[in-house]
Amino acid sequence: MLIAAAFSSCTKENGVFDADDTGGIIELSDLPARATSTVYSVTSKSFDVLSSVEFPVTVKYSGTAGAPQDISLQMVIDTNFVNTYNSAEGTAYDRLKEDKYTVDSYTLTIPKGSKTATFMIRLKTNTFDFSLSYALGISIKSASAGTVSGNYSTGIFRVAAKNDYEADYTVTGWFFHPTAGRKIEETKTLSTAGLTKCNAPLGDLGGYSFDFEISGSSLINFVPTESTPTGTKSGFFTADQGGASTWVNSPVSDDKPGTAPWLHTTYNNTYDATTQTFYMHYGYSSTGTGEATWTRQIYEKWVRE
Length: 305
Description:
Blueprint: H1 2-8, E1 25-28, E2 41-47, E3 53-61, E4 71-77, H2 79-89, E5 94-95, E6 101-103, E7 107-110, E8 116-123, E9 134-143, E10 147-148, E11 154-161, E12 167-176, E13 181-192, E14 197-201, E15 208-215, E16 218-226, E17 234-236, E18 249-250, E19 270-272, E20 277-284, E21 296-304
Parallel strand pairs: 1-10, 2-11, 5-9, 13-18
Antiparallel strand pairs: 1-3, 3-8, 4-7, 4-9, 6-8, 9-11, 12-13, 12-21, 13-14, 14-15, 15-16, 17-20, 19-20, 20-21
């Protein structure tokens, strides 16, 4: 089952103190779990359009108690992290140039007895170009005590000025799956990735997501992000593909893609501006060669809250 696979492949350290209470994992707490196949964890943040807006990045000291002493941290923002991620993952994030942000201080302190410190960046979002996909590579360079995480000391932070579509949405639908088909009923957030581009969580899976663009009433240019399979292995459907797999549902039913109410004619990758509603139909498979082979298929209706 994919959910189990997603969690079993994560590389999160346990963050537990050792017996004499002198150790603890120090990491960037804003990062989502990542698969071992990804070079860095990536997260998206968006902000109001202002001449200066706070972008706090939390550094966490994990363990059973607070820091046993004051811990001095040295932070760094480095273009090379973004370049490395782009090369490894086939993305094209644009480095946020220094004239578009300021940093309060690159030196932080986690006080004795506490668990966090804040690396404060101030973004000049009124200077952002919506046609670019900005990212910052942020890392904990060193710590005076504890153990700097090997998996979550560095992350890629996509930063954007909010577009007109960013919001929380009530999402309902169905996740068709070869062994674990299930209802989708939750609140999800669309994040800004450009003037008319958004990033959306994929189904109910943590660590899987995708970018897409709104062109009039049509949703176009599906781009996999995080752990979503790339290339011909994922994307928007153009038709129902009930023959891509056998389907097991919970609750048990004989439903398959292309049987009412799960029809592409309804979930046709469109946006209704009047009701602020998205109708999505997308899928993926780790071995897929096009939509007829995608064995994970998601039909969703997104209604703005």
